[in-house]
């Protein structure tokens, strides 16, 4: 099924705040008691949001890898006291290519397959899931929502879009309503204090479950290294996007705090068991959701492809592809189509804002690589100056159309012309040639080196850097015979 779709808004019910005593933070301060069990209202909120979150993050995976993640997640979640039995928790491995994990009230815990591929032992998996359970046990979601109650659901979505599309430009609060879904209300950013609180509790859960608590620090270090590598490969200065997504800021600065908290504690890591159990897991984009190869996006199921401009990078999501660069930002997605492209373009503009009317001066029609197309640009006053908003739509059939929504500084709408002109249908053979990348867990043989193993990575660039980050190896660490390591290979 195509991943570019519209989702219903999640419940915005007000959450009760049930906090008791406190425990000490590593650097001073207190954290609330987390002994209160899951309430009926929390269970209802989680049950209502669960299917929407699964849809937003690519759906729940099944099979032995998903079962393994569920077992570890339930084992660590029981340490929280939120529920008396493993069955009190619903732990899902979701089919998303971004590094993310989260949990919502009611005992619902999630991790993406991509974040699992970055881990190197079972203790790290337990640590990430325990950290998310801690956010729920500490009622962080309730505390965030209580502070945000004066905002409407759509206002919150618009605020998120302002960071995705427009940086600090307040216009994002006005045009974001059609781009993001309400379930993000349950996964908005936590404060640094809340992240540290969850780290502390997560380490406690690891220790009580018999795992090495230092795993919290090592997984954070791997995440920070991956963020930095992604930023360099994509030509970004900002190494904090799009990591433990927007919900987990600054993993690098929390590594030392986690190490300090775990000092003197020991436990198992179950490294070889973990690597064996995740062998074959899809790495990066799933072809069913479309894949990003350099500046090209190709979707074999939808039979389409386009190319981002030079100097821009793409982030593939379940609902849209985001195109980012210094001179503009854009998203590629779809909406309901009635067979008229001009009406379609107008409907996209009409859905951008409730605060101000956004209309293009005119809508022009054209043909792009044999596809009927229509486009229009509107000049809009933003908080830090004028911007141009462009909608460029393509008809693929009588009932199916896709569009770009692009934002550039005023007078620079042509920034994306090359991308608009690159949209094309792909052949059946080209679609068939798109295969996923998967993890291949191998045992290091005598004579193997980091360099020789890295050359087996299914990438044409930064092979050794990718291999080191994937396996949690520093720049001067090597490998030894008999050691299990991960490489990324082409699947079938």
From TrEMBL:
Molecular function terms, GO-annotated: metal ion binding; metalloendopeptidase activity
GO annotation terms (biological process): proteolysis involved in protein catabolic process
Record's keyword annotation contains Hydrolase: yes
InterPro entries (alphabetical): LysM, LysM_dom_sf, Mito/Outer_Membr_Metalloprot, Peptidase_M48
Needed co-factor(s): Zn(2+)
GO cellular component terms attached to this protein's record: membrane
Record keywords: Hydrolase, Metal-binding, Metalloprotease, Protease, Signal, Zinc
Domain LysM: 440-487
Signal sequence, renumbered to the chain: 1-23
Entry-linked PANTHER family: METALLOENDOPEPTIDASE OMA1, METALLOENDOPEPTIDASE OMA1, MITOCHONDRIAL
Name of this chain's protein: M48 family metalloprotease
